[in-house]
Design brief:
The chain has 303 residues and is α/β, with parallel strands linked by helices. The strands form 2 sheets. A 7-stranded parallel beta sheet has the order 8-7-6-9-10-11-12, sandwiched between helices. It has a 5-stranded parallel beta sheet with strand order 2-1-3-4-5. The longest helix is centred in the last third of the chain and has 19 residues.
Length: 303
């Protein structure tokens, strides 16, 4: 019977499906590297989520490994190229969390534009200053997507009744595809200078690391808000703090950070930023869809 190692949590029903077919070792924690090196030796598959690293050392230690499965989308903590060289398949579940991340991105847009969290804290302090929280509507704004994959496409559908305009920068998606969804394809600099809401939807690669930095913030409108539900290192966090402190942009909504949990005290103390702990895909529905998406892929490989 094949053995599967599962870390960082997994849907219970999906676990039961795996247990019907395989020996399953389940641990909801993020493992220490030495622990992982010891546990993976005789496993046929491993399922990880956000914070477990499967690097060359781990892959070399696994004598029987056939599948590395990512419970989610991003593969930056997995040495994909080395795994392929060793004949190990790497799979993920890119569709299961699309709606959940899209909804959180929209929530961040609205909360940041309306200064929702700051207003909530003010009321809790016993204050009642309505004028202080005069803010912006989403209606009539231009939403700019950096990257136009599954999540921004879901956002365009969900925001169809908000009377907004959409633009997008993505060198890998053609103009016709965008036009079919009422999105105008633009260059990167045009998006930065035109959009009222800039929403990031790119993977973390050498190409995208720090793609939003001081130069980019200087090009944005003073009433612009930045939304990041992608990866924290896509944004130069020091440049973001500087832009927020100096009023170069209106605000930011962040679900991801340069370090997780975040330790940048300047960022954490700013009133014009809405923060959530990387929960874009953390809904019961998304967790279930992603888990069963992986079960199906693993069964196809292991039999």
């Amino acid at each position: 019977m094949a053995k599967i190692l599962v870390y960082e949590g997994f849907d219970e029903d999906a676990l039961e499906e795996l247990r019907k077919r395989y020996e399953v070792i389940y641990d909801p924690r993020v493992p220490e590297k030495e622990e992982l090196l010891e546990s993976i030796v005789d496993c046929d598959a491993i399922i990880v989520r956000t914070y477990t690293t499967v690097d060359k050392d781990v892959i070399d230690r696994a004598r029987k490994l056939k599948v590395i499965a990512r419970y989610g989308v991003g593969l930056e903590r997995i040495d994909v190229e080395y795994a392929k060289k060793k004949g190990i398949e790497v799979v993920n579940s890119p569709l299961g969390n699309v709606d959940s991340v899209a909804e959180l991105a929209i929530l961040h847009m609205l909360a940041t534009l309306r200064r929702l969290v700051e207003a909530d804290r003010s009321v809790r302090r016993g204050e009642w200053d309505r004028k202080k929280f005069e803010s912006y509507e989403l209606k009539g704004k231009t939403i700019g997507f950096v990257g136009f994959g599954n999540i921004p496409r879901a956002i365009t559908r969900k925001l169809s009744g908000f009377e907004v305009e959409f633009i997008a920068y993505d060198p890998y998606v053609d103009e016709e595809t965008m036009r079919a969804m009422n999105v105008r394809k633009v260059g990167f600099d045009e998006l930065l200078s035109t959009a009222d809401v800039i929403s990031l939807h790119v993977p973390l690669t050498e190409e995208t690391k720090h793609m939003i930095g001081r130069r980019e913030f200087e090009m944005m409108k003073p009433n612009a808000v930045l939304i990041n539900t992608a990866r924290g290192k896509v944004v130069d966090e020091d440049a973001l703090v500087e832009a927020l402190e100096q009023g170069r942009i209106y605000g930011a909504g962040l679900d991801v950070f340069y370090e997780e949990p975040p330790r940048n005290q300047k960022l954490l103390s700013l009133p014009n930023v809405v923060l959530t702990p990387h929960i874009g895909g953390m809904t019961k529905e998304a967790n279930r869809r992603m888990a069963f998406e992986l079960v199906e892929k693993i069964v196809k490989i292991l039999g």
